[in-house]
Amino acid sequence: xxxxxxxxxxxxxxxxxxxxxxxxxxxxxxxxxxxxxxxxxxxxxxxxxxxxxxxxxxxxxxxxxxxxxxxxxxxxxxxxxxxxxxxxxxxxxxxxxxxxxxxxxxxxxxxxxxxxxxxxxxxxxxxxxxxxxxxxxxxxxxxxxxxxxxxxxxxxxxxxxxxxxxxxxxxxxxxxxxxxxxxxxxxxxxxxxxxxxxxxxxxxxxxxxxxxxxxxxxxxxxxxxxxxxxxx
Length: 232
Hints:
This protein is an all-alpha fold and 232 residues long. It is 79% helix and 0% strand. It is built from ten helices and no strands.
């Protein structure tokens, strides 16, 4: 007999799907944003930095409400997307991807940015002197050195997306089989008599994933620090 019931498996599967797609879509943007914050000086840099970290300090419900105001089916942008390309985000699993990605985005950006700031610019300059193009410098020098930070950011962003609740339930509600993720399912089970058992099982699954993500992230950070301290 399966340890999890059909409803629990459904919620876990949707959560993994949402977290994976959110990480896949938002990590490239996180790299671009981290590079801009770490290496570029431009007007509005402070504002961009504040906007990136805003989801960390705003109540998640407020973030979900703002998304509803912007991407709701009656909102100008949400209505335009539905009419133009048939994309519906509010009360749909794709909206859960957007909410989860936004909530995990600051963690992704911060991990990559810290790695970029730890790269010695002299190594990149040496590669340029030897005739490497900017693209070659990025792929042969910079990218290998920030790879642990990239992976750490992806892991933390995935874990955050997997556990997102406030913004998700506000923006896409809690529709079984459609938008009910693990946190939403736990909340729903706790409202029912005898729902403590399924809620506990899902909580343990979430705990296992979160601990694994944090452990992997710490390992990658320590490995990166160890390689930086090694003699060259």
